[in-house]
Amino acid sequence: MGSKKILLVDDSSTARLVTRMIFRQKSNYVLLSAVDGRDAVERARAEKPDLILMDVMMPRMTGLEACRVLKQDKETSSIPVILLTTRGEEAFVQEGYASGCSDYLTKPVNNTELLDLLKAYLGE
Amino acid sequence: MTGTEDKEPRPETASKKGSATGRRGVSLDALRARAQQLSLREQLEREHFLLERLNATSTRLIQAVEQGQVFEAIGEIIGNLIGSEEVAIFEYHMVDQSFSLAWSTGVKEEVLQQFGLGAGFIGRAAHEGTSQFRDRLPGATLLFCETNLTACVALKLNREVIAVIVILGLLPQKNGLDWADFALLKFLETYGAVAVRLQNLREDSVNP
C-alpha cells in the first residue's frame, strides 16, 4: 500500500511542529501543511489528500468554514476532515459535525488518540 | 500477534504449575503478564510523547529568537501543549524589581494590572524564583486576580528571574496539570529564560 497524504491545517507553528514530530515515526504518512482555512481549500483541491486534519480557530477562514466549502465541492467532498478544537463542549462538537466533519479531537492533542484515529480512517 | 504474545505460557503449562485458569483456559499469570506489558507500553508511549513535546518546544523557541517573538512562542506553547487560552507573561526587571507585561491572551485588562503589582503567587514566583502551582498550595491565600490561577512559572537563569508566566484557566477538557505538563513547564523554566535572554541580547546588539 502506498503512502497516505494528510493535510495538516493550523495557524500555530507550534501545533504544526508537534504534529510533524508525532508523524515522524510514521513513514507511511506524507504530511502536507496549510496555515489557514483558505490555504487549506486551495491545497486540498490541488493535492487531493487522503485526510485533512484541521484546526477550528484560524484567521482568514475558520476550520468550520473551510470544512463546509470542501464538502460542497465534488472534488474534495469525499475527503474525511478531522477537526482539532480547543472546545470539547457538546454545542461546539455539534457545530463541527454540522459543517460536515467526520470526526474531531480536542486540544492539546494526544499522540496515541491521534494515531489511533488516523488508523481508523486510513488503515494501518 | 506480537512475538511477546507468543512467549506467554500456554494454559496447559500454567495448569501443570498449579496456576488458576480462567473459563477460556487463559491463566491468571498470563493475564497479569499481558496487563503488565500493556501498562509498560502505555508508559513508554507517554514518555515518548513528552519527548516529542520537549523537542517541539526547544525547536519553536530557537525559531522565535530569530524572529524576535519569544513571548508569543511561549504563549503558543502553553496554548497548544498545556491547554490554556488565558496566559500572561511578565518580564522581570532586576534593577527596580518591577514587572512589565510582555504578552498576554484571554486575560482582562484589570486582572493584568493587578498581576503587575507583583504580589501574591506571581510575587512569590518572581521574588523566590520558584514556580507556584495552585494544586500544590491548596491552603494559600489568593488575590482577587488569582481566583482562576493554575500556575505561575518563573523563568530563570541560575537564580535570576527573567520572566514569569501566569497561567489562569485551563481548557474545559483539562482537569488539571498532569506529570507531562509539569515536566514541560520545568523545561520552560530554563529554556524559556535562555530564549528570552538571547532575544534581549540580540535586540541590544541590533539597537545598541
Describe this structure in a few short sentences.
Chain A has 124 residues and is an alpha/beta fold. Helices cover 44% and strands 21% of the residues of chain A. In chain A, helix 2 runs parallel beside helix 3 (63-72).
Can you put this structure into words, describing what you see?
The complex is a heterodimer of chains A (124) and B (208). With 124 residues, chain A is of the alpha/beta class. Chain A has a single domain (4-122), classed as Rossmann fold (3-Layer(aba) Sandwich), CATH 3.40.50. Chain A is built from 5 helices and 5 strands. Chain A has helices at 13-24, 37-47, 63-72, 90-98, 111-122; strands spanning 4-9, 29-34, 51-55, 81-85, 103-106. In chain A, helix 2 runs parallel beside helix 3 (63-72). Chain A is globular. The model of chain A has no long low-confidence stretch (mean pLDDT 89). Chain B has 208 residues and is an alpha+beta fold. Chain B has one domain (49-206): GAF domain (Beta-Lactamase), CATH 3.30.450.40. Chain B contains 7 helices and 5 strands. Chain B has helices at residues 3-6, 11-16, 28-67, 70-82, 109-115, 120-128, 179-206; strands spanning 87-93, 98-105, 132-133, 151-157, 160-167. A 5-stranded antiparallel β-sheet of chain B has the order 2-1-5-4-3, sandwiched between helices. Chain B is globular, with a radius of gyration of 24 Å. In chain B, 34% of the residues are buried. Residues 1-18 of chain B have low confidence and may be disordered. The chains are: A alpha/beta (124), B alpha+beta (208). Chain A binds chain B through residues 12-15, 17-18, 21-22, 86-89, 106-108, 110-112, and chain B through 45, 48-49, 52-53, 55-57, 59-60, 63, 73, 76-77, 79-83, 85, 171-174.
What layout of secondary structure does this protein have?
The complex is a heterodimer of chains A (124) and B (208).
Chain A: E1 4-9, H1 13-24, E2 29-34, H2 37-47, E3 51-55, H3 63-72, E4 81-85, H4 90-98, E5 103-106, H5 111-122
Parallel strand pairs in A: 1-2, 1-3, 3-4, 4-5
Helix pairs in contact in A: 2-3
Chain B: H1 3-6, H2 11-16, H3 28-67, H4 70-82, E1 87-93, E2 98-105, H5 109-115, H6 120-128, E3 132-133, E4 151-157, E5 160-167, H7 179-206
Antiparallel strand pairs in B: 1-2, 1-5, 3-4, 4-5
